[in-house]
TrEMBL record:
Keywords: Membrane, Sugar transport, Transmembrane, Transmembrane helix, Transport. GO terms for cellular component: membrane. The lineage of its organism: Eukaryota, Viridiplantae, Streptophyta, Embryophyta, Tracheophyta. PROSITE patterns: MFS, SUGAR_TRANSPORT_1. It is found in: Membrane. It comes from Acacia crassicarpa. The chain crosses the membrane at residues 47-72, 92-112, 119-137, 149-167, 179-199, 205-223, 287-310, 322-343, 350-372, 384-408, 420-440, 452-470. Residues 54-474 form the Major facilitator superfamily (MFS) profile domain. This is Major facilitator superfamily (MFS) profile domain-containing protein.
Length: 487
């Protein structure tokens, strides 16, 4: 199982494993440099409608991704009580989704190339539905863990194929906005899981996770396959039909079709990059930046604080976790939207540094709350401080640290190593997510203030790392970014 499997898709500007990888329209870059023109096209209402419908169907998978990620937070106490799980057993359950997702992300490129984008989405839906049913019918830890692993594997595929599909069907002028829908639906799915989980049983919540997957499977029957994938596998007639459906029957697609075929041909002429090529002097700094910023993203603690937020509130002395989890759910969506708006206005570096400053503040306030509780001081203030700290943390993470690192990662690698570099970064990201999600409960039981202060310290390290190593990429071409990195 090689990591070169992502190369064809990612190098053609068709994203990788997160929202940020869609932000750079690579075909537009090539068209501008090769043809010396702006290449404007008029899109009619019919074409826009099919693109929007196709995007809506695809992001049902993103919504399912969010519900899976958000499932463990509101259900921890109930699952442990009903199935008599130890803290270690529940921590394994919560973290298995990241192991499954890591394997799903690694294999997703080959699956999407072999089965097509729609075929990969169907396959991921099958794994997720199987996983949710296993959780629903669980009588012990084995079937619970197996279900969590299956849903993780499914969302690992979804995390790759949905952004790729959106990038491949969207016209250039809509690609950035439609890409944002992917991340937004992940956040909405997580928030909905938090909200529903506060009022229904954990088994009912697992069953509700199947609903967006059924919508995805039904919707796939009515939308076209990715034209670029069809062109890549040599199905030129189907390629023309799919592109025509997406652009509208009255739109002249000959120029765009020729450009896509020309670009795919140019990619095939590039030498196949090897993993060791990443450690050549001309690529080392890009690798350090890409891996470093994703490590920072994970080790500010999001997959611990996010996965087990409800129990964090209870541990701080809140009588019911519902108030905290509802606030958590409601704050993510508008803040994520604000971050998407600011990304191309404020720039990447300032947004990440402001976001990391906010996660530090949130961790510091929450750590102080647990410190006061441990010393039996100001106990009436502890729950309020804990809720405020977590909400500040979530708001700060959502505005920048959640999506901007993916954007930066997609922009800093040269096109000939982008596939294998993206694979390496995804592996590091999911490994970090597993480490944090598995150890969080143990660390909080051992020393809650110290754990939160550690995550706060990682936020400060993030600020220093971005200030020292990460270039500003806003408004620059890929060539200009490479020049600034290697200067």
């Amino acid at each position: 199982m090689g990591i070169e499997e992502y190369k064809d898709d990612v190098e053609s500007g068709e994203s990788g494993n997160g929202i940020g990888e869609l932000r750079e329209p690579f075909i537009q870059q090539l068209g501008r440099h090769k043809c010396g023109r702006d290449d404007r096209r008029i899109e009619n209402k019919g074409s826009i409608a099919m693109v929007l419908l196709s995007t809506f169907v695809a992001v049902c998978g993103s919504f399912s991704f969010g519900t899976c990620v958000g499932y463990s937070a509101p259900t921890q106490a109930a699952i442990r009580a009903d199935l008599k799980l130890s803290l270690a057993e529940y921590s394994m359950f919560g973290s298995l989704v990241t192991i499954g997702a890591m394997l799903g992300a690694i294999t997703s490129g080959r699956i999407a190339d072999f089965m097509g984008r729609k075929g990969a989405m169907r396959m991921s839906s099958g794994f997720c539905i199987t996983g949710w049913l296993a959780i629903f019918f669980s009588k012990g830890s084995f079937s619970l863990d197996l279900g969590r692993f299956f849903t993780g594997y499914g969302i690992g595929i979804i995390s790759y194929v949905v952004p790729v599909y959106i990038a491949e069907i969207a016209p250039k002028n809509l690609r950035g906005g439609l890409a944002t829908a992917n991340q937004l639906m992940i956040v909405i799915g997580s928030s909905v899981s938090f909200l529903i989980g506060s009022i229904v049983t954990w088994r009912t919540l697992a069953l509700s996770g199947i609903m967006p997957l059924i919508s995805l499977l039904i919707g796939l029957c009515f939308i076209p396959e990715s034209p670029r994938w069809l062109a890549k596998v040599g199905r030129e007639k189907d390629f023309q039909v799919a592109l025509g459906r997406l652009r509208g029957k009255d739109t002249d697609i000959s120029e765009e079709a020729a450009e896509i075929l020309d670009y795919i041909g140019s990619l095939e002429s590039l030498p196949k990059a090897k993993f060791l090529d990443l450690f050549q002097s001309k690529h080392v700094r890009s690798v350090v930046i890409g891996v470093g910023i994703m490590v920072c993203q994970q080790f500010v603690g999001i997959n611990g604080i996010g996965f087990y937020a409800a129990e964090t509130f209870v541990a701080a002395g809140l009588s019911s976790s519902n108030i905290g989890t509802i606030g958590y759910a409601c704050i993510q969506i508008p803040i994520t939207l604000l971050g998407a708006i600011l990304m191309d206005k404020s720039g990447r570096r300032p947004l990440v540094m402001v976001s990391a400053s906010g996660t530090f503040l949130g961790c510091f306030i929450t750590g102080i709350a647990f410190l006061l509780k441990g010393q039996n001081l100001l106990l009436e203030w502890v729950p309020m401080l804990a809720v405020a700290g977590v909400l500040i943390y979530i708001a700060a993470f959502s505005i920048g640290m959640g999506s901007v690192p993916w954007v930066i990662m997609s922009e800093i690698f040269p096109i000939n190593v982008k596939g294998i570099a993206g694979s390496l970064v995804v592996l590091v990201t999911w490994l970090g997510a597993w480490i944090v999600s598995y150890t969080y409960n143990f660390l909080m039981s051992w020393n809650a203030p110290g754990t939160l202060f550690f995550y706060g310290g990682c936020s400060l390290v993030t600020i220093v790392f971005v200030a020292k190593f990460v270039p500003e990429t806003k408004g620059k071409t890929l060539e200009e970014i490479q020049a600034s990195i290697n200067s």
